[in-house]
TrEMBL record:
<dbReference type="Pfam" id="PF18265">
    <property type="entry name" value="Nas2_N"/>
</dbReference>
<feature type="domain" description="Nas2 N-terminal">
    <location>
        <begin position="16"/>
        <end position="92"/>
    </location>
</feature>
<protein>
    <recommendedName>
        <fullName>Nas2 N-terminal domain-containing protein</fullName>
    </recommendedName>
</protein>
<dbReference type="GO" id="GO:0005737">
    <property type="term" value="C:cytoplasm"/>
</dbReference>
<feature type="region of interest" description="Disordered">
    <location>
        <begin position="97"/>
        <end position="180"/>
    </location>
</feature>
<dbReference type="InterPro" id="IPR040815">
    <property type="entry name" value="Nas2_N"/>
</dbReference>
<feature type="compositionally biased region" description="Low complexity">
    <location>
        <begin position="124"/>
        <end position="138"/>
    </location>
</feature>
<dbReference type="GO" id="GO:0005634">
    <property type="term" value="C:nucleus"/>
</dbReference>
<feature type="compositionally biased region" description="Pro residues">
    <location>
        <begin position="109"/>
        <end position="123"/>
    </location>
</feature>
<feature type="compositionally biased region" description="Low complexity">
    <location>
        <begin position="97"/>
        <end position="108"/>
    </location>
</feature>
<dbReference type="InterPro" id="IPR035269">
    <property type="entry name" value="PSMD9"/>
</dbReference>
<dbReference type="GO" id="GO:0070682">
    <property type="term" value="P:proteasome regulatory particle assembly"/>
</dbReference>
Length: 180
């Protein structure tokens, strides 16, 4: 093995760095969650006020709010870093066969999935299959329902809190695409 095989590529080093950063964020997240779940910590989502609406006396409300905010921030950061790590890892693994292969060797990688997919059925076969599925016992399927273009009157009596009355819907003018 040469020296080049022993040294990690820059992409692998970047993946390792991202994984280390994610692990550090997960450790910090775990510590903050443990502090919130400890007795007197306030919890992750419990109320911060008592039944009368005053701040709870048994916890430091400002500290609990700060910790909850930090938990939300860390969760978002861990998710974003995990997505970045996933994409970077896919890049490294996709480039691996071409980087590790000897110069004279030919690529024996399988063809992309698009080449392995069967060709689409001819339109006549697709129409026959759809007709067979529509009429399982030889009963013809009904014709398609006509499309209607409906328009409500320009002014309907309504308020922001109440929908328009039903009579407004009855007054809608409709016409089919083939004519009025």
């Amino acid at each position: 093995m040469g020296v080049e095989a022993m040294t990690p590529s820059p992409d692998r080093a970047a993946v390792k760095k991202l994984a280390d950063e994610r692990d550090a964020l997960e450790r910090e997240l775990s510590a903050v969650v443990d502090a919130l779940l400890a007795p007197g910590g306030g919890g992750l989502s419990g109320p911060l006020v008592d039944a009368e609406g005053y701040p709870r006396a048994d916890i430091d409300v400002a500290l609990v709010r700060t910790r909850r905010n930090r938990v939300a921030t860390l969760r978002t950061d861990v998710e974003a870093l995990s997505n970045t790590l996933h994409l970077k890892l896919q890049e490294v693994l996709a480039a691996r066969p071409s980087a590790d292969a000897p110069a004279g060797a030919s690529s024996s990688a399988p063809p992309p999935p698009a080449e392995l997919a069967p060709p689409p059925a001819p339109p006549a076969a697709a129409a026959a299959a759809a007709a067979a599925a529509a009429s399982p016992a030889g009963v013809p399927s009904p014709p398609p329902a006509p499309l209607y273009l409906c328009r409500l009157p320009k002014s309907t009596p309504s308020t922001p809190t109440r929908p328009p009355p039903r009579r407004a819907w009855r007054r809608a003018t409709c016409s089919s695409p083939s004519g009025p």
